[in-house]
């Protein structure tokens, strides 16, 4: 085998491609905590890792993908009505670093928002705050490019806080209310307890913890099914 | 601003460069837990994030950097005698993905070993097991390239388990022994408790928790000094 860097001229380590595969790998994994005796009232717990993604508003969709364009379904997500779209954008940070193939999750929302892991944000040079989805006041922005245009997103880049979706019946079972914090204890060789899992209650929700790729990789989520949600 | 992917032909998202900066950023951070009253016997706790790196043996050093070559000091590390070297290699995974500028930590060891975060390992396509440093039996390998040669590392690629170095006096203070597990509770907006912090005792050690970049990014280590090591 040859030596020296010149062997690799023209070959690059593509962070984009690897992360796309990471999305496929991790979003596809579902960790089910079933009651041991089969009769416990405890609902099944699904924990999913979200790779970085964008939520988009109508106005930004028009600019990036063309007037009147619509998101198209690449894959349905666990929460009913939500989907990973075929549409992807490129985000450009303040130091001219970029991440391409940033997937959009549908449906469209009232305001655009980009959720990055700290690994992504540090790579881009963006100081992303930890926020719950939708709470984007005074967050940083970036340049976003789509196939039909580009725009300067003024704000909306966050590191999403780990959270659990549930319906009111499940909330009653756990004895928690909207905005409470729960713990998620993940076993396995890299055991971690997430101490601040935000409770988000909606009648349409399915019980489901969302963490990001940094969190999933830190706890080795792919290595264990020993996971417990605790009040 | 122009639109479309062609604008970026020839421009790549360099994971290597960003991670090098991440090394500098995170290794430089020290989180000190000082006793509130200034008279407590509790030793100061330093928590450091280790970016991916290699430990190298004499034989592999000869192949990669030339017969009789030596590591040179780029920066001293927290544990006395350990240092980040100027020397770097490229690691090539089974799917022809690569990570360049993988820094070597000195001094040389009896066997080569590469410590990756899961984010790195997934990117390379390597199924790295969680191991304590030095415990590399039946771990995967990879092709390693240096400026003077390349080799096939047969084994030695791990995701290092989070661990705490301490001296015997500190171990006595905590009431722990070699191989015990402790907890590290990190506060802040992304609060996490690491439930399996391996205790490593050595007379030359300074009290110091080592985590990797996935773990540091998951808990937002850069956002808080509210950190506690618990038996």
Overview of the molecule:
The structure is a homodimer of 231-residue chains. By secondary structure, the first copy, chain A, is α/β, with parallel strands linked by helices. Helices cover 18% and strands 33% of the residues of chain A. A six-stranded mixed β-sheet of chain A has the order 1-14-11-13-12-15. In chain A, a hairpin with a 6-residue loop joins strand 3 and strand 4. Chains A and B meet through helix 1, strand 5, helix 3, strand 13 and helix 5 of A and helix 1, strand 5, helix 3, strand 13 and helix 5 of B. Strand 13 (192-201) of chain A pairs antiparallel with strand 13 of chain B, so a sheet runs across the interface.
Task: Name a few traits of the molecule.
homodimer, 231 residues, 5 helices, alpha/beta, globular, 5-stranded antiparallel sheet
What's the layout of helices and strands?
The structure is a homodimer of 231-residue chains.
Chain A: H1 15-28, E1 46-50, E2 53-55, H2 58-65, E3 73-76, E4 83-92, E5 98-106, E6 113-115, H3 118-124, E7 130-131, E8 142-145, E9 150-153, E10 157-160, E11 163-166, H4 168-174, E12 181-186, E13 192-201, E14 208-212, H5 213-218, E15 227-230
Quick description:
Chain A is α/β, with parallel strands linked by helices and 231 residues long.
